[in-house]
Structure formats: structure tokens, C-alpha cells
């Protein structure tokens, strides 16, 4: 589809629509195949997510287009692209107008929160929320700016959409694992409005004047997901996923050693030799945001692939998911949560809160005793991971000999270094198709270095990088809000003005003499570390030792004077 007045980058609109559908459908397939207990109809869940995506993109388009009560030729062309994306056919003229009117009536009943709720309430989808927010912002801007004129009404509509999405996904916010599971959107009848027939049925075809594109077959929707062990990743695939994580060197070594031990036991068993029984229950200690839940999920995949556990799924909970409010209810509640984890892993965050120190807590102690008994009785059917701050977890283990004997395997998650935090930020940018100016890279590294040097036990680690990224995307949206026309480069480029460290004083970045700073880069091939000027940030450089070329993305900042000494 090309023509006069059509946006210079129409492929970006079409590609963003495809990315939105892919995000929703893959999220639905993940829930259906790996976390089926979280929803009532796992087989149809991918289709339901596809319907939500249809409702979302239609509501986005119509909210912007109806803001100024006019429909420009450029907006009509985008509507053709949108209809082809949704129904696999090109329509125009009166048929296009009628279809959009029908869609407008349907989307008027939909709430933004209902269209994105799975990414807020289902724990396995929580890390995809920033991707969704980025796609929403990009789609809304592409529609609003396609004709080059951003009127006050469109600017207001953009702000309202971004404000609603921000309210649904607050920075650094989130529900507990238990709250997410309890707020299962699929069981809310009001949300089923997203399944309205307008989203699935093809618009009526015109008679006569058939364009060749009208013969395009409608893309097949997501197929029902079969819950099969065939989709279980192999041990090697799970370990590769572990290796792709940033940092966590000692943790990777421990997990790989455990996997090697279990593989050896399998071979001994196949050879008719006795196996060495060990407890697989674990304790994960570390500050928030150090990757404990992510590693637990990978460990589950490894155990599932090895056949140590039947499924290897991960059930997350905390004190609220185990301890009841009234006498006689804690035992059944704890047992029910453990039953949910059979065949997989039970991950208990802030496990030390089960037994309040220095106070009588009969309910918490009942939960702990039930947990101990089931940890022993069902040790061949599940693995329990207790997680929390290092000091508190140590006190918990010392307070109960039964816990320390059954949970003897301990993994300590260290805080991420400033370089690793910057790499996490860069990874989020790459996943969401954002690029950074050299000045923005410098500001990210400098700010994260200050955050790290002044951190306390409540330091957010990876969450700091995630919050910084989400905040930068929102500041970028505000910066571009008053621009009448924006290019594709502007849509994907984060500048230094978009990077803001709310908790740091402005003096950290003021009077910065960039000529006195340099950044140390390590070659990924020969591991040579060399200091380079800041002007090389984001550019391709060549290692003087092995000749390997790579992009100078992130490094460790130092002063020229410091390096000289």
C-alpha cells in the first residue's frame, strides 16, 4: 500500500501491529502450556489473547482518529492496513467506513484495563508489561502523527491513553504472586466483551470491483495449545537460557554443577548402580531484583527435562498464600498451595516472614511445620525454594533445625555491578527496538554507578534498570508529544533528556567534564580490556589484540587521571 501522503514508514505501523499480536499470542501460549492452572480454559487461551490484541489495536486507532472528529486520507490508509492485519483482506471506501463504525460501537464498551489485564495479573507475563507499554505508545503516536498535524484534541487523546496505561502498570509496582493468581481476568465475565464478533469475523465483501488482494485468505488464528511434554525444553536449552542471563557467574556454575550431578545419577541408574539421594530443596538468598525467580524458573525446566520432576513448572507464593486469617485454616491453605506445585517447584518469597522473630505467631509456625512435613513426604514429587534477604534467611534456618537439615543447598545472589545494570538496561532497549545516543549511554552508566555506590539492602538491582527504562520511555513520549511530525528515528531513539534518575540529585550530572572521563571495554573474543574515549560509545570498534570488531555499548567509567595513575 503506497500513495501520496502515506506515512514515509508505513512498514513501521504494520510491523508494530504484528509485534503486538505476537506478544499477545505468545503470552497466551506460554500460559496455556506452562501455567495452565492460572486460567480456566487453557486450550482456548491463545485465541482469547488474540481477541484482546484485536480489541486493543482497534481501540487505540479509533480513540486517536475520533479525537478531532475528522478522518484524514492518511488515517484511512492506516485503517486499510489495520483491517488487513485483523482480517486478512484489503477494504476501502464505504465498506471501510462501515467497518470502522461497527468497530467503534464495539470498542466503546471495552475498558483499557480489561484489554491488558493478563500482563498485570499473571505473574509469568509481568516482565512483558514494558514491551506492551512500548507498543501501545508507538502505535498511538503513529496514528496521531500520520498526517503530520498533531492537533490539541489528538495530543489530549495521546496523553489520556498513556496516562491510563501508566496507571495500570505503575513504575516499580506490581501485585504479589498470590494477588495476581487471585485476580484471574479470564474468570471476569465483563472481560469477555473482547471476544465480540467484530474481531474475528471478516467484514462483508463488496460485490464487483474485486481487487486481487481481496482473495487473500484470512490468517489462521492461534491453534489450541496441547499440553504436552513434547514442548519441554531440553537440559541444554535450559542451560543456554541460563547462560544468556547477565551476570550471576557463581549461580550459573552451581546450577550447571547440579545438572551435571543429576545427569550422572541418571547414567548410574541406567547402569544398574545405586543412586546417591540428596535433598533438592534450596535456599536462595539475595537482595531484591537479583534474578532469584528467573533462575528458579530455569531450574524447574532443567529438573523437568531430566525427569526429576514431572512438569517442572514454577508456583510462586509468599506468606499470604500459605497463612490463613483464622484458626484451623492455615494447614489446609498451605497444603493446597503445595498440591498446586506437585510435579514442579514451589518458590516462597520472603520465607522468613512465615515465622515472625520475637513474637508469637501460631499461624506462621503451623504453615512452617506443614511445609516441613510435605517437604519430606513429597520430596520426590516437588522441590521447594525458600527465598529472601540473606540475614533474615540465615536467622530462619537457625531457628528451626528441621529447616536447616532439609534445605541444605544454598545459593547466594550477589548485587549486580554497575556494568551489569547498564547491560540489563541495554537488553531492554534492544528487546523493545530502542536505540541510545552516546550522551544517553553515558548518563545511564554514570547514574547507575552512583546508585550502586550509595546502595543499601533495599537496592532494587535489576528492577532499578527496568524502572529506569520504563521511565525513559515515558519521558520520551512526553518530549515528542508536542512535535507535529516525528520520524522513525525519533520514535526509536532515547536521548540523554529522556534518562532521569529520580532519586539522584541533579548535581551528579551537572558540570560534567566528559573530556576527563573514559570507559573501559572488554573484548568478548580475547577478553582484552582497554579504555576508550566516550565519543566511541555506541560505535563499532576493533580490538587491537585479536582484530575482533564489536559495538562499544557499555563499560566501566573511570577518570583519565585515575587511569594514568
UniProtKB/TrEMBL annotation:
GO terms for molecular function: ATP binding; ATP hydrolysis activity. Keywords: ATP-binding, Nucleotide-binding. Residues 206-217 have a biased composition (Basic and acidic residues). The keyword Phosphoprotein does not apply. InterPro entries: AAA+_ATPase, AAA_lid_6, ATPase_AAA_core, CbxX/CfxQ, CbxX/CfxQ_RuBisCO_ESX, P-loop_NTPase. Residues 278-417 form the AAA+ ATPase domain. Residues 183-234 are annotated as: Disordered. Belongs to the CbxX/CfxQ family. This is Stage V sporulation protein K. It comes from Posidoniimonas polymericola.
